[in-house]
Amino acid sequence: MQEKQRILAVFFAAALLRIATSLGFPGIHAVLDQRVELTTASSSFKQLREGLYLYKMGISPFDGGVYHQAPLLLLIFDILQKYCGSIDASSIAINAVYCGLDSLAAWFLVKISQSGKFAGKQKLDGWIIASIYLLNPLVIATNLARSTSVFSNTLIFGAIYFANCSIPLSILCLAAASNLNIYAIYLLPPFIFLWCPTKSVAKCALSAATFAVSMAGFTSIGYFMSDGSLQYLRSTYGTLLFFSDLVPNIGLWWYFFMEIFDFFRPLFTYIFQLYSLIYVLPLTLRLHREPLFAVVTIMGITLISKSYPEVGDLGVYIALLSLYRHIFTNVRYTLLSALVVIHALVLAPNFYHLWIYLGSGNSNFFYAVTLVYAIGIMLILTDTLRATLRIEFDGGEEPRKAVAQI
Amino acid sequence: MLLRTLVACLLLLQSALAYREKLDLRPLPRNSLLASFSFSLASESAPTPDDISHYGLFPRSVGQIIRSSHATEIHLRFSQGWWDASEWGSLPEQGAYAGGTGVEVWAWVDGADLAEAEKRWYELVNALSGLFCASLNFVDSTKTILRSTAPSLDSNKYLFHGSLPSESVCTENLTPFMKLLPCKGHAGISSLLDGHKIFDSKWQSMALDFTADCDDDSCKLVMSQRIDVVLDVLRSLERQKHSPVPIPRRVEDLMCDETKPYHSSEKCFPLPTAPTVKWLISEIFGKPIVSKCALETVGESEASELGENAGYNICTHITDAWSLSRHGGNVLSSFASKACFSLNENEEFNLAFDCSNTSSVSPITSAPVHIQRSMTGRGQQHGGIQAIIRNPSPTDPITVTYFETLPWFMKPYLSSMTTHLSGPDTLDLSSIDPIKNITYKPFMERVRSTHLELTLEIPAASTLTLSYDFDKTLIYLAEYPPDANRGFDVSPGILRVVSQNDEITYSMRTSSLLLSLPTPDFSMPYNVIILTSTVMALLFGTVFNILVRRFVYEEDIEADKKEKGGLKQRLLKRFRKDKTEKKSSVKSAG
């Protein structure tokens, strides 16, 4: 009883915080939306509104360089606009949707933790897990920036939650998430292990096929929205895959592709995409006993390796890590990695400001911070991965004896 | 529309005229002088389009370009400087021949489909680039706008438009311009065209219009060339005297700005002009007119229309305060407001202007619309564009079309477009939506630029403020010009006043804008490749290291060590083993 009330209190406080900030400072959405760390070409609310505006005008939003997000989002917001009128970032409908999505994600997270099926046996209290997600400044800022990645993040949480109780729903959630954020498709291999724990080939194949069909279904929405033209594939997924919209972000891509010689650009585009893909199967196979941790680790790797990353993804990653309380005792560089990431997050806006607004710094300042951020994420990733494998080596027991890797 | 006015004047010329040249001199306030040179030329009618023997005086180089590109109309504008509409009124010929800063080209091209027409258009701009020594070959798909299409007899006509706002117009463009003239600057009014004088001006616009006027069985090519230039008379005279050091003006020569609050008999805010001025054409243009261009002909229709002014070459538009004295040539008419002269062959012509009051100029018609465009915002991430369009007419509303192209590295947000009307209190402006129509084609990275065309209606004596936001993107290192921090030029917007029956009555350009983009560190490519790759390799190495290596208890290692011995012992063991093996092998060999 006590536990439930605490969880409710966290949910209430988080919702209040979001809505009060939105109503108190209606300008905050536009300010946060313009922060390159928070929103990118794949998640900007301003660009979504432009896409919707063009769509309403009868101009195909996919036949242009502004809108690069999934057609499904356009459909959702089109319906929202039809029934709620304005889709201003601080309007009631948008507030309700974004607040509801974050709460839903946190609720999924608490339920995943409580079920104890996938995650570790040692768990944090539900209200702590909820507050790690809901009160994380990165998550709050992403939500207030009205980043559309909130949709795909909630769907990923949903996919994990439903893997426990309703596999078709889980498949649908992952397919929708992959439609909104193409990198979620990397989660398919570990999810197949989640969906069919018995590892029967027929069942695995069936769920993979269902995923493919539903993914195709979601993707074909764009085909009907743009009157039978396949141009939307190029302007949405093509942009994410080939990195054609060159805008600074917290990731490793932008400066590299800005500086690289023209001749090598296609080669390195393939290499970078391959780089983010190459981890998927080895991690899934090595962590086949704990597929959820494979999901978490792959999400962590895409934090660095995807073309348009944003700091909100880090909030999601931290929230998912909070399901694994037992590895905390085995991680070695908690302080170091936390400090590196915090440094990067504090310096990024400052260095960006120095470069873009004051002109007293140059692009290398911001680039250096993105490198530090990547190293910080890398420390967390490798540390938790090692800790998990170490615990697995000990048979899930609390490790007592010292080990070495050979 | 511009084309219609052109066609109208071309029809006039068509009757019998082959070549005609005119110069209009109009003194403007504050000792400026507007000189409008116009040259028009038509080929003979060729029975078939492939017949090349009927060009007459028409330059064959242009004729071949028109033939090969299947263009029915080609228009080129080379402009520089700024037309001060508040001082000088409306543009010459209602702006039909005025271009925006830099080079502008537009053409109607025939083609079975768009792809074919586009191919011809790129061939055309490349050919023109060579002919006019301009960077027109840089008009690629990102700088081309397809403005409209029209069905023609057996094919379609496409109107392409391209502009290069950063092109600096100079002597190398004037020389090919003069080469197209029959007298090539050796005689006639074109002998006044000297690059040093024409480009030392407050504003100048060079226009070339070519039209292929074809009917069923014959084709006729028509060319109209024009230079409008606003010269600073005092500066030209100073240059003439070769005085590099500015000398303070005498008190009698000063003109004071009487609107200043501190103006009195002791205090004077000097205006940059002189109350009286005296000059010769040869002082302003560097030389007198050599003689009449012998190839000029006056058509019958023009003779009947203009009466006694027929065949004039030079006209001045002045007031009573000015007196003229001529050297050479003939007087055709000498009204106080307009005096016209014709040239004679083998006789120099010069004209002296003597003015007792330079503020007295022939009446100026004010422009029907004013526009001012600027960039708003700060920083290099995003900004806004604001266009302020004013309708000065106290009684009539006007309809204008506003055409803008933005380079692809500017990402405009049409959803952020706002309009604000302000005007007299008698009008209820809040209920009026000034935007009547929007044509919008969004940009595509590295493929095409944004095309925005608005039809606006502005109530009488009102001002419309149009604004929208845009984002700036980064571009690849190699796409930055050598002077990357100077910024990028954004083409001038084109504003056209449309009359009730859809005719263009006035057209004008805004100034071009300078867009500054965020720049990378240009010395970094190798460093970035090395550093980014290192971080990626670090993650790759660490993750796979953890994944593939197996865990062992340290105590097991200890046990293993004890069993096999330490490193030293193992090495020794190995060494001994090798030695004994070697020995045995040596033995066996022996």
Can you walk through the features of this model?
The complex is a heterodimer of chains A (406) and B (590). Chain A has a domain at 2-234. The model of chain A has no long low-confidence stretch (mean pLDDT 91). The longest helix of chain A is centred in the last third of the chain and has 31 residues, at 363-393. Chain A is mainly alpha-helical and 406 residues long. Chain A contains 19 helices and one strand. Chain A has helices at residues 2-24, 28-33, 45-57, 71-84, 92-115, 126-134, 137-144, 149-165, 167-180, 188-195, 201-225, 231-242, 253-259, 265-277, 280-286, 291-305, 311-321, 334-358, 363-393; one strand at residues 403-405. Chain A is globular and about 65 Å long. Helices cover 23% and strands 34% of the residues of chain B. Chain B has helices at residues 2-14, 60-69, 85-88, 114-132, 171-179, 195-198, 233-241, 281-285, 300-306, 525-548, 554-564, 567-589; strands at residues 19-28, 32-42, 71-81, 102-111, 144-151, 156-164, 203-214, 219-232, 277-280, 314-317, 322-327, 330-334, 338-342, 350-355, 370-376, 382-390, 398-406, 410-422, 435-441, 450-458, 463-472, 488-490, 494-498, 504-509, 513-515, 551-553. Chain B has three domains: 2-355, no CATH class; 370-515, Sandwich (Immunoglobulin-like), CATH 2.60.40.740; 554-589. In chain B, a hairpin with a 3-residue loop joins strand 1 (19-28) and strand 2 (32-42). The longest helix of chain B is centred in the C-terminal third of the chain and has 24 residues, at 525-548. Chain B is an alpha+beta fold. In chain B, helix 2 (60-69) runs antiparallel to helix 4 (114-132). Chain B is elongated, with a radius of gyration of 35 Å. At the A-B interface, helix 3, helix 13, helix 15, helix 16 and helix 18 of A face strand 18, strand 19, helix 10, strand 26 and helix 11 of B.
